[in-house]
Amino acid sequence: MTTARPWYWELSQRGSGPDWHLLATFAPLGAAALADAARRMERMGYTRVPAVARNESLITLIDSAHAAQYIENTKEGAAQRNILIYRLIEIDHTHIHATYAYGWAEEGDALSAVMLDLRAIPGTALDSWQVQAGGEGYDYITVRRGVGWQSFTSYLETPAQ
Asked: Are 127 and 23 in contact (CB under 8 A)?
């Protein structure tokens, strides 16, 4: 496993937010590897949310500390309770979208490690990626974007300015 900065390092350094997003798009051949990545995230402190009828192919993972309330909120007719601080990762065919609400970071970010490990899997080409911040009344900004594994890896390994 490669050791590098977490994907949100620049957002944390800038004080951007309140929410942090990583959007990554992969080549279609990478779909099986993305499903494997979701299973790995489950072993790293995330809970898989049961699929909903409107999108059976969407894999949703939430940090285990907030899983019970998030899953309850998805049930029809359930009393909705706001969860302000959480980590949510959605994987759908060729996309990963991570949301760290209110910039809730973790030491040794599991998603960054999984992303870097995906590089070694044949057929898992990273087409594009973006790191964004915003939400809760703040405009969304794209802090960094790139194409391919080389640009993503360089971003994580670039020394802070």
From this structure: no
